[in-house]
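TICKET #2291
ISSUE: user wants both folds in one file
ATTACHMENT 1:
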Amino acid sequence: MSGETTLLTSIVKEDLDGGGYSFSLSGEAYAAALVHAAVDEWPRAHGDGDVQAMLDEKMGEKVTIVRTGTNMMGCGLLVAQEGKLFEGSQGYAILPKGARKKGYRVNPDEVLAVIDGYRTDIALAMCETVTNRLPKLDKLTQERLESLPAPGSSEVGTPVSLAVFGTWRMPDGDCPGAIWLCGEYDKEHDIVDGCVILLRPEHGESEHGSVYGRQLLSGQFGEIVGFQPMPFGDAVKLCNLDFEEARDRVLNSR
């Protein structure tokens, strides 16, 4: 779309030997986890304003809107769109900067911010504020799970040495920003054990237990880069803390 700038995407470019790069238009799971978490984190970083009221107030004016979206392959995106708001035949709409016709519908449910004027620079800074609150992630692989100790291989108890961040799917909806702290992996039965899962209280209760490896590998998850192992007992105690404090302790272990 004209006048549109991508702020965050789940498409990851990988450098190729000999030059060039490759990428998947459908994005990478760990990058999608960050996009989903950024959308969830945005109101905490910038306030949960009344989007419809903001759109009504700026009707007919030049603005920059920040919204969520996907490409044709379902890749998650956060974008900034500069343009002039107007009332279209199907509700809110925007005429992109530099265009004289062919406006686009604006879905209020997808809008995170409405900024005065053409200020993509502010949108970029706002997005950076959000992503700075999130961990750095790398791709989670079967090989990484298999690098965990087998159950019962340690006489003194296995510490959690793998931290996984992403969107945990619950029966009643998705839980973005969930953290799995993992200690052991039973390859034969595909069970990751000695685990602690940290969830925001609005999504569920933090607890310890186990998870199938395939649930992590097939979902929107990535490995937290630089996580330092901690005793399982210390990880369990995180369940009793406020989520923000527990998350900060995990991220600050890097």
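ATTACHMENT 2:
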Amino acid sequence: MPWREPNNYDDWDSIAVAIYESVVSRSLEESSEWDKFDAVPKYDKRTDCYSNSSYLTTKDESGACAFICFETKSFPFDTSLFGRLDESNVVISFERRKTDSVGFVLAGRSGDVVTIVDTLRVLP
């Protein structure tokens, strides 16, 4: 099954979605830190604005960019695609980072308040 972009097989993307929902989405929602935040967009959902969403972001620039999906250049999921946000949380550009160099944190939104969460404790 081809997994390198741009020739990756459609089912490869389905595998990425399943892993993300199982490992990331469920862990967020079942953590003690999830404080009834607004929902995180689905994996690889392209949106123009994050003003009504929680999102994964980078630890080094908390809140400045929103995680969209993983991409594959040389190794599976070796690249992370982010939307760069302006002060209104509108996506102004896209950028790619090597996944192994990204420290992910949660920008949990509740109304107009955003809380950066860098550690999660998943409830049993």
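RESOLUTION: both attachments delivered.
EXTRA DETAIL ON ATTACHMENT 2: The chain has one domain: 10-117.
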